[in-house]
Amino acid sequence: MRNDAGAPALAQVAAFVREHWFKLLATSALVLAPCFWHRRIEAGDLGSHLYNVWLAHLIERGQAPGLVISPLWTNVLFDHLLAGLAKIFTIHGAEKIAVSLAVLIFFWGAFALAAARRAPWFIIPLLAMVTYGWTFEMGFFNYYISLGLSFSCLALFWRGNRFERLLAFVPAPLMVLAHPLGLVWLVAATLYIAVAEAVPQRRQILLFLVAAGVLLLSYFYLQRHFVVDVEENPLYIFTGADQFLLFGARYKIVQTAALIFVPASILWDVIRRRREPGVWTAYAVPLQLYLLVELGVILLPDGIRFPGHPAALALLTERITSISAVLLCCLLAVMKPRKWHLAWLSAIAAVFFWFLYQDTAILNRMEAQVERVVATLPPGQRVLGTIKPPAGSRVLIQHVLDRACIGYCFSYGNYEPTTGMFHVRALRENSYNMTDGDSTASMEDGSYEVQARDLPAFQIYQCSLTGTDLCIRPLEEGEDNDRLGIHPPK
């Protein structure tokens, strides 16, 4: 895959852009469509990110005593991007622009990584699905951007000359500013690729076993030195296609279709081209990387609690499968394209995005309800919200309250200022936010016992079995905050 003898990889990229600029623009426009099909982008933590940018503006103007901005070196790139854009545009305009940039970084980074021998236009429907998969819908945009940058850098390393391989690490500080896991993946993958290229292919099995041994040692080290959380769901679902399991059981249709299409089409391609020179070599390293990432899914914990940090680095299993999904796309890109590949992937993507459009439309209507009910309060009130997702959903939706409060009320149970892992932090004495993670967790669960210091405060709760009807009421000292909540069955 290296390109020492040919034209530099960056020169080939420039030529590719000149030749296909219209197709690139058209594809980008299509990929960005879900960012604009509703008034608001529904993506889990996005509402919290936007709300905390607004809090940061209040802090800068001295209007939120007890809240401070803490200088952090990681997990803040997306927030800085939002804050900078919000000073030029409205905060909702900043939302559209920042998320669109994140989508393009991730999508084209994955596309570049998959472009092993040819531009993989036929897998664009699948890449688009991965782009709007679980990681996007949870709103983990710092991690999302870091991964997108790592995919681009890994593509340059994989196919670049010696100088370009050094250039691949230039964006490393930007990756760390977004999320360190992107750089961890880049370093691990580049090291594996470099060694795999240096040894004969028949000995790559030894390299694979050594890498698997490192993962096993990491498992024992983390178990002995840290408090770790174990994934509750069965690990066999985390193949990369789990990125398509979002708001309910019907997404299993999409997951199952993808799990049938990917191995069946690869097997068909291998059988048809088994005597073609270079076929096995082209599949070898992407397959090894995919299997190693999946081994990491099995061995690594779902969460790690570091000393001195009140919040854990959580949902690692689910996050890692974003990499698995992109590596599946890399494997598909090795195939010789057939018209039926594009047809089947387009059909699967059509079902996925139709489901996604419907479910995010429901969330938009719920958020509009939140805006209406908080508007019945005087400005500046403290509001708590226990808004649980529909049955079978793997996506959290409680942050619709955060965005609805921007400019009008305070989302008193917002988790970010309590964790110490974001740029806004709540001091012990403040009137705008809870100050510890246990309180915010029990508030979101609905079991928080209201204290006198919390009042006056109001509760947004689900008031029908559908889970989509929302009501508001004043809270009283000593009661559980979601005492009247009616939630969809699990």
Shape: globular
Give the number of helices: 18
The arrangement of helices and strands along the chain is HHEHHHHHHHHHEHHEHHEHEHEHEE
Number of domains: 2
Distance from N terminus to C terminus (CA atoms, Å) equals 48 Å
Mean pLDDT: 90
- Strand percentage lies at 5-15%
Question: What distinguishing features does this structure have?
Answer:
alpha/beta; 2 domains; 56% helix; disordered N terminus; 4-stranded mixed β-sheet
Structural summary, described in words:
With 490 residues, the chain is α/β, with parallel strands linked by helices. The protein has two domains: 9-35 and 72-337, no CATH class; 359-474, no CATH class. Helix content is 56%, strand content 6%. The strands form three sheets. A four-stranded mixed beta sheet has the order 5-4-7-8, sandwiched between helices. The chain has a two-stranded antiparallel sheet with strand order 1-6. A two-stranded antiparallel ribbon has the order 2-3. Helix 16 (400-405) links the parallel strand 4 (382-386) and strand 5. It is globular, with a radius of gyration of 23 Å.
